[in-house]
Amino acid sequence: MDYFLNEQQKTLRSLTREIAEKRIRPVRAELDEKEEFPWDIIKDLAASDLFRIFVPEQYDGLGGGCLDLCVVVEELSRVCSAVAVSYAAVDLGIIPLVEFGSHEQKQKYLPDIAAGKKLAAFALTEPSAGSDAGAIKTTAQKVEGGYVLNGTKQFITNGGEAELYTVIALTDKTRGARGASALLVEKGMPGFTFGKKEKKLGIRASATRELVFKDCFVPESNRLSKEGMGFIIIMKLFDKSRPGIGAQAVGVAQGALEAAVEYAKGRVQFGHPIIAIQAVQHMLADMATQVEAARSLVYATARTVDSGAKNVSQESAMAKVFASDVAMKVTIDAIQVMGGAGYMRDYPAEKMMRDAKITQIYEGTNQVLRNVIGQELWKRKFE
Ligand SMILES: Cc1cc2nc3c(=O)[nH]c(=O)nc-3n(C[C@H](O)[C@H](O)[C@H](O)COP(=O)(O)OP(=O)(O)OC[C@H]3O[C@@H](n4cnc5c(N)ncnc54)[C@H](O)[C@@H]3O)c2cc1C
């Protein structure tokens, strides 16, 4: 299918594919096994200017859009989703700064992010606040010149590895979600430490860690936008970032499809390659069709985001839900096509299945996102 990518997107795709094939494919199983953060690969991505994509030109970036990011994330995820999410989480960490930061804040932080010298992360989730994000307990108490941050964030991608954290905390406990604000917190600020490092089912080479704030002073100049804007910032962030999770899902599904087709061509049973068996062909046909449908929805949504359309919550939720459900189904079917071999770690399909699962969970579980889609349908008048 021709998705009519522009020249920049085609260049990004071939550049990322080259890095993924040459640098990531040979080490992905080892990174997964060792649960090792892929610093060498992150440095390669930085050297190829891929962190510049999501930074505006004024701050040494390329000023790319949602589709540019999706193209890169998909190519990375086609080979290794753990690398893809470590990369995409930087974008997640800085979208609030790009969208709501002052010139001074952007000038201070974005050039180093664009150069890949520093990674970023986004911290909302807490032990008692997952889907119910409005239940966060982390507080940012106003003091002379800034805020004192107290609380624990859980399951934070790039936790410990990133230098810059966009943290959502309550600046006014009495107002609940309306009292939340976004603060830029730097690694090394006194009172900011890292807690438990999670051991995960999939995306094992990515870092998922607790952030612990104990009387951590954050200057007022590090608050994004006004006090109380925290949840408006989050909603805008997820509208823009969810197609990226969709792209991660499309990439891992594409990788699994390719692995299954290659295996089916080479595996001989009953005297011929198993791809000649119609039951196998039909499975592969369904897998390929689903991947293409998911890619079409993700790209169309990314283009809608890039058009500047105001309310894209429903489209972004649909792209993430559909693509992640496809990723789960296709990766499981890839194992089925490959039989016992698919179940073994010598082949990539089992890792892809483990990696696919998270796309149905983070940035809003698929059940919660179906609520979002349902609410939008409820509001809509069909003409
Ligand atoms: C590997 C990993 C990386 C992550 N990275 C980050 C990160 O970088 N930053 C960050 O802030 N967070 C991050 N998260 C957190 C992630 O966004 C949450 O795990 C997710 O939002 C779900 O929250 P929960 O795990 O607390 O599940 P819960 O909210 O406890 O949900 C449990 C179950 O109940 C269902 N459920 C809950 N409420 C509803 C509802 N209203 N309607 C229907 N079903 C519902 C859920 O769908 C789910 O099936 C990460 C999580 C993981 C696992």
Throw out a few tags for this protein.
383 residues; alpha+beta; 11 helices; 10 strands; 52% helix; globular; binds flavin-adenine dinucleotide
How is the topology of this model organized?
Elements: H1 7-24, H2 28-34, H3 39-47, H4 66-79, H5 81-100, H6 103-114, E1 120-123, E2 139-143, E3 146-157, E4 164-170, E5 180-186, E6 192-197, E7 208-219, E8 223-224, H7 230-266, E9 268-269, E10 272-273, H8 278-306, H9 313-343, H10 349-357, H11 366-379
Parallel strand pairs: 1-4
Antiparallel strand pairs: 2-3, 3-7, 4-5, 5-8, 6-7, 9-10
The structure holds flavin-adenine dinucleotide.
Flavin-adenine dinucleotide (FAD) is lined by residues 89, 121-125, 130-131, 155-157, 200, 208, 358, 361-365, 367-368, 371.
The total of beta strands comes to 10
Sum up the overall morphology in one term. Answer: globular
Can you tell me the residue ranges where pLDDT is under 50 for at least 5 consecutive residues? none
Strand numbers in spatial order across the main sheet: 1-4-5-8
Number of helices: 11
Order of helices and strands: HHHHHHEEEEEEEEHEEHHHH
Largest sheet: 4 strands, mixed
- β-strand percent reads 15-25%
The averaged pLDDT comes out at 97
Terminal Cα span: 32 Å
Query: What share of residues is helical?
Result: 40-55%
Assembly form of the protein: single chain
Bound molecules: flavin-adenine dinucleotide
